[in-house]
Amino acid sequence: MDRTRLYRNGVLKAEGFPIDDVSDHIGDPSVVVWFDLCSPSPADLEKISEELGLHRLAVEDALHSDQRPKLDTYDSHLFITVYGAKLVGKRLELTEISIFVTKNALVTVRESPHFDIDAVIRRWDANAEMARYGVPYLLHGLLDYVVDGYFDVLQVIDDKVEALEDDLFEDNDADRLHIQRQTYEMRKSLVRFRRLAVPMREVVGSLLRRGVEMLDPALTPYYQDLYDHTLRAAEWTDSLRELVGNVREAHINQQGFRLNDIMKKITSWAAIIAVPTMITGFYGQNVPYPGFSQPLGFWTSTAAILVASSILYLIFKKKGWL
Amino acid sequence: MDRTRLYRNGVLKAEGFPIDDVSDHIGDPSVVVWFDLCSPSPADLEKISEELGLHRLAVEDALHSDQRPKLDTYDSHLFITVYGAKLVGKRLELTEISIFVTKNALVTVRESPHFDIDAVIRRWDANAEMARYGVPYLLHGLLDYVVDGYFDVLQVIDDKVEALEDDLFEDNDADRLHIQRQTYEMRKSLVRFRRLAVPMREVVGSLLRRGVEMLDPALTPYYQDLYDHTLRAAEWTDSLRELVGNVREAHINQQGFRLNDIMKKITSWAAIIAVPTMITGFYGQNVPYPGFSQPLGFWTSTAAILVASSILYLIFKKKGWL
Amino acid sequence: MDRTRLYRNGVLKAEGFPIDDVSDHIGDPSVVVWFDLCSPSPADLEKISEELGLHRLAVEDALHSDQRPKLDTYDSHLFITVYGAKLVGKRLELTEISIFVTKNALVTVRESPHFDIDAVIRRWDANAEMARYGVPYLLHGLLDYVVDGYFDVLQVIDDKVEALEDDLFEDNDADRLHIQRQTYEMRKSLVRFRRLAVPMREVVGSLLRRGVEMLDPALTPYYQDLYDHTLRAAEWTDSLRELVGNVREAHINQQGFRLNDIMKKITSWAAIIAVPTMITGFYGQNVPYPGFSQPLGFWTSTAAILVASSILYLIFKKKGWL
Amino acid sequence: MDRTRLYRNGVLKAEGFPIDDVSDHIGDPSVVVWFDLCSPSPADLEKISEELGLHRLAVEDALHSDQRPKLDTYDSHLFITVYGAKLVGKRLELTEISIFVTKNALVTVRESPHFDIDAVIRRWDANAEMARYGVPYLLHGLLDYVVDGYFDVLQVIDDKVEALEDDLFEDNDADRLHIQRQTYEMRKSLVRFRRLAVPMREVVGSLLRRGVEMLDPALTPYYQDLYDHTLRAAEWTDSLRELVGNVREAHINQQGFRLNDIMKKITSWAAIIAVPTMITGFYGQNVPYPGFSQPLGFWTSTAAILVASSILYLIFKKKGWL
Amino acid sequence: MDRTRLYRNGVLKAEGFPIDDVSDHIGDPSVVVWFDLCSPSPADLEKISEELGLHRLAVEDALHSDQRPKLDTYDSHLFITVYGAKLVGKRLELTEISIFVTKNALVTVRESPHFDIDAVIRRWDANAEMARYGVPYLLHGLLDYVVDGYFDVLQVIDDKVEALEDDLFEDNDADRLHIQRQTYEMRKSLVRFRRLAVPMREVVGSLLRRGVEMLDPALTPYYQDLYDHTLRAAEWTDSLRELVGNVREAHINQQGFRLNDIMKKITSWAAIIAVPTMITGFYGQNVPYPGFSQPLGFWTSTAAILVASSILYLIFKKKGWL
Q1: For A115, phi and psi rounded to 5 degrees?
Q2: What is the interface pTM, i.e. ipTM, of the complex?
Q3: What is the largest CA-CA distance in chain A?
């Protein structure tokens, strides 16, 4: 079933009709039309582009993924590129959504079915009474859903950072590589995510600034709210980068301190073993030392070994090296 | 008892009356009303929202905590979100306060009772003569109290940094993990705190800029003063981040230098023990070396051990390795 | 064959004619002329400069490579310097291209034949119908090709970063120097590349701002698109710098952790070998210890060695040190 | 003696008269009055505040130290907070100076006597002929003295950085902790100093911008000069932070390299001692090896020891490890 | 010989005449005068200052070196401070040049003879035909020479960075301290250099902005070109800082990796020596082990030693530890 919708005077009149029927309504100013294309062929786009009078450059951009949210203004329409984000395991999965915005039509072009367009439809229906504001209302619902997805991603990373922290100060070697890899992956995701979040802020900011003429004043607070969300997403991203950096540095120091401990243990045990070895070496000499070949020698040797080892053990224990 | 207040012509007329009575006064322009809701239900907010004509989006925001101070302008009212901050142990505890500002009413919505609204009331009463400036005066008192809370947090962290410093250059291993954890916690708190302090500056800055029409000129210096405080809080946060970084780096270097010392000690003692072991090994050979099985052998061996060990000990002592 | 082109009223009329013939057409306003000079002598440039009325400073700049994209406005013409970029092995190879832009002529001066001007010609021909926009169309095709070259460079570096990552968490020593060198080279290339990408953004941005008078409105979207590309190149460069930094830091930590492991292995094996040595030392003493010169001694010694070594081995195995 | 001054038409008429006499002159527009309060009581300030019509907020600010230079504009006067800075040992000592600026009076309120107000008086007297410009001239003299104090601080830190550098590349362990502590202290001072220097720049910048109406044009160059000085102080602070960072990093690397050297020495000497020990172990076996209990054994053993040790010593010497 | 010049209507009329003769021509508007003072006494400057009507503050600044390029505008003249830069060995040598610019006079005051003013004269003469533009032409020639000097400094540092790189990945210990010192020195020079390059950009930028009234339009491209050079110098400085940082970090990692290698070698050789020592210890026991005092013992011992050592050697060789 094609994802299409037709509103007349703010009321949903038709849904799921074939995309080809769109052309029947496009000229009617009382009608607002939406339809969605999922990974369309160049020919599909070409047809629609002609009907709606879309600019060649915008259509080309919709066909190529270029990893940067943007807003282009053409004479008769806007062209917006945004990216839906989802964390799949520890990979950040992005889906490009190209949006054509004309006076009475909204066209969404999804790069792949990974972006859940039905959730957007549910969001529209949750505020159905606002449908009278037309295309800007539809656009808001879509962008709002996209930005909410960003918070889901950030929340997951935030939770992971908190979880890492618990492992951080435990003396558990098994966690070591785990922490190292996790911080690596998270930082990588955040670098990529930042490339979305910051330009997204500019896209919504531009919409808001230009919107003065385009938007019904009643919609302005909604776009303002959306803009606040993009600001928050960008700031949160930066905070998380710092928190990940904090974990990473603390982890490295932790390792450094542990190496220090190990070095101290080495010294201590090496000394505790080396001294008896030196003493038995002494009593192993083929020279008539006091007690040579006599029980006395055995007792003095054994006593020396025990005394020296115990003293060393106690010294190191007291210094906290063992 | 409900927290409510009613001022008429700058004089406190009633206090602690039920919130439901508010609607009796809200239409009277000579009256200024304040009331406070602590973790209200959606229904509670709904009722008030209708009476005061609050925007749906603002009401929704008041119900959800979203961790970012902001100022939204609606047609008939302002909506402000700020966060009270307190250090509980080493955790930074934040309480969201949503504020609705209309011509003659101030509504504060606290996320939880952790924010001490009575202290705000005391602050208002300390400058009771200024109540004639109405809502902006109440708002100033509230924001001023919030920002003063930030300085309390920053002062505690500042004191902790100073305290860490004293431990820093002492040769005490027990403090090590302590310093490491403290710097970790402080940096984490500062990252979170920064997410409050910087947007708070913008919120007060916006109030000041828009205030030209809204504020009585006599109040401008008070808002300017508040703005200076938010600037100072943001700058102090940044300084503290650098000071914590300074402690942290100095601490790591300290550990590095200590490892260096330990390595030198290892070398030294290893040498002092290894050389006698080598000598006794020589005298333990089953070959007729000079002194084999003769007292002479014992004396030369013992002399060699003592001389070699002493020389090594003195060399290392002189080099400062022991 | 000389690279020259002559368009009349947006139609390609002649191609490959000698540069000396250019002067015949330069005065005709219905004609647009392009020609290319590859590492010209000062005399060559001098001649052309006189015919087209180019400024002395611009001509001098065209003769000297100075490693910074720029746009200079002279009374009668623009002078643009851009750099073509290519990765040859791991070296970033730059070719300066100086561009003189007059009302009806475009002159490109290439520092060396490494920049493939024929590819630019192919790009022009791909959109031949736009030739009616004259010089700005030719300039757009050229700059677009240059910026596309930047993406090729960035894509190669991006792929290399991804490839490094796979090696990163493997326990393979041979890769170590490889990763170290690669991150060094990539960071170096990115520093140099950034010196191109950021000023390039300004060059195109200036063209767009000044273009209001110069450009046919139909071309504006094309220049806007180009500007988006330069933005994206600059942002991508910054992301890559961070990703390379991420790999580098993870790699260093990796090495630190590995050193830790090795230190643990040393301790463990040293202990496992040192203890039997100490025991045999004991049984090598020339004193009548229990079992001296008797089979009993052999059995107790051997048993002690095996038991002590096994216990140590198991302890270390359990601690994960072996 | 009270620090007070009275100028009439640019000529110093009275000095050192009691502060209480000030009120006699304050209404006379041909008179310029200055007086200084050192750590005044709230009552003292209250009295003066009434006479000069100072704003309550400014007076409160003058009583509390809040560590941030600022300029507040009130209806009838300016309020300026600056900080005098001095290095006492390695501690940065700050003294708050609050300044009230009215049409014909300058009031300075010093937090403590550590700020040398007499030096300011000497500076005023050095340019006595400029006294005809009134209050702005007095203010300039004061601020100029404060900023010059900053340069003294920065010069001392700069000299210290230079001095550290000489110790840096010497192989002297005693300096180690010294360098570490010094860089720590300097960086800390610079962080605190930066919190003065940057807002100070803004304070003077604001004075200059607002001064258009207030200042005699003849004074503008003097304020411009002062502004240049604040710029220079801020830039110098940043340079010093980087230079201290440079020293610190070089120092850490130095330590790392030294650890490397020590590890090499350990290996070398350990090998030189371990090999003879192994040889004597061989000749200590109770088995009939060639030379067992014969002079031949002694000579082969001794030769093996000498040859092996010498070879190892020479190898390590050649590798530069000893 | 004094460095003086007199142009009338753009033609050089006199040169090398005594500075005292300047006053004869200074009032003549058709004349342009230049003269140079090298480390003048206050009295010298005083005299000139009176004749040209220079501001007291500017004259004072010319007498004191304050390490920051700046441009001050006075009623009747401009005052510019710039710094000539030269690398002498690895030290960055700066020479302050103070410049007074009046309608028809240019005065240069050099702090020391290290700045080669004759080279500036040669540059003027190279474009002698432009002398008709008067003082701005002379000023351009001077500033252009100064900025070109910056490129010489940057080129030397750039070459050094390239040279260091070749040493970087070689396994040569002798270079180690060399690299460490070089990066230290270069970074220090770049910090100091940055303090020149960035304000220099502002000085030329200000000249360009204000120049609208002052400059002949024909000179604008020359000042624009100069401004591009200062931009490039600032950007190059930043790139070099990053490249030096890149070398430094790679160098430190290199050292870390080498330490790792040494640790592995230690383990390996320690094990290869420790195992035979353990075996000979076994055969040195005074207990009747199999082969005690029999040739069989010698052969088993020797075989065990050779086999164990070889196996270990091969294992370590295969692991790449030796």
Answers
A1: -85, 125
A2: 0.81
A3: 119
